[in-house]
Amino acid sequence: MDLYAVFGNPISQSKSPFIHTLFARQTQQQLSYTAIEPAEDGFADALAKFWQEGGKGCNVTAPFKEQAFQAAQQHTERALLAGAVNTLKLTDDGIILGDNTDGAGLVADLIANFGELKDLRVLLLGAGGAARGVVRPLLDEQISELVIVNRTVAKAEALAERFSEFGKVSSSSFEDLSGQFDIIINSTSAGLKGQLPPLKAELIQATTRCYDMTYSADVTAFNAWAVEQGAAKVVDGLGMLVGQAAESFTVWRGIRPGFRQVLRELRRNLSR
Ligand code: ATR
């Protein structure tokens, strides 16, 4: 049976084994998918062991995405631009290919919830690793403009600069930010620390849709705040998680699983 796994530390909370097992069943693929938790300094060894044991591909999550990038012998364009790898694949030629499916997962879920993104004005909160992986896929949807806002403005500027050849993208501080946005995406880790990004309430208008890249059984802190300010719709990142998994599965198996049903089951399990 073909072997797949997810590497991360911690990993016990990972939904990936559940998701990929359902994908395999749905598409009638014979594979096993497990979770591996290397020590913080043990990723390279654990990965080498995985390939020796016949591993065909894996997902990689925090804190190993940059190390996975280093471990890859070849990279897709989207992995090069993201500077991080969440998907490794052993190709038929025996080469370790590094890919990044996070942005594709986000875009798929945005479209599923909000419709086509073409000509929309999008605000991205945060300029860390999570933001970097999604900028190019968003610009590829021909949005009218992407504004990146970050507490540390220099990081937003650097990100906007890096992607300026792919579309209209600019940066701002939270204080200077104004105007109207169709979609606001929260990629900051503020919520994980029980905080909110310092976004002015007036930026949430009656037509604004908000997407929080994190998820929780209850509504996330950012989405709860956005609803209080009158947002038209809020969605959390569970669908992005399933979307990136579907994209990884497609990279490995050449067959695209449907993700609506898996997302429903996952949501049901979360709220138990
Ligand atoms: P990730 O890989 O998850 O994006 P990261 O690279 O550490 O993690 O980036 C975290 C992002 O959340 C950054 O944009 C960070 O802002 P800074 O670059 O200014 O540090 C943002 N962030 C974290 N806590 C925040 C808070 N309380 N308010 C606003 N932004 C916050």
UniProtKB/TrEMBL annotation:
Q: What is any one GO biological process for this UniProt entry?
A: shikimate metabolic process
The record's annotation in CDD domains points to: NAD_bind_Shikimate_DH
Q: Which reaction does it catalyse?
A: shikimate + NADP(+) = 3-dehydroshikimate + NADPH + H(+)
Its Gene Ontology molecular function terms?
NADP binding; shikimate 3-dehydrogenase (NADP+) activity
**Would you name any one GO CC term?**
cytosol
Give the InterPro entries listed for this entry: Aminoacid_DH-like_N_sf, NAD(P)-bd_dom_sf, SDH_C, Shikimate_DH, Shikimate_DH-bd_N, Shikimate_DH_fam, Shikm_DH/Glu-tRNA_Rdtase
Which residues are catalytic? 65
Family membership noted in the UniProt record: Belongs to the shikimate dehydrogenase family.
Q: How does it assemble?
A: Homodimer.
Role summary:
Involved in the biosynthesis of the chorismate, which leads to the biosynthesis of aromatic amino acids. Catalyzes the reversible NADPH linked reduction of 3-dehydroshikimate (DHSA) to yield shikimate (SA).
**This protein is called what?**
Shikimate dehydrogenase (NADP(+))
- Organism (species): Agarivorans albus MKT 106
Instruction: State the organism's lineage.
Output: Bacteria, Pseudomonadati, Pseudomonadota, Gammaproteobacteria, Alteromonadales
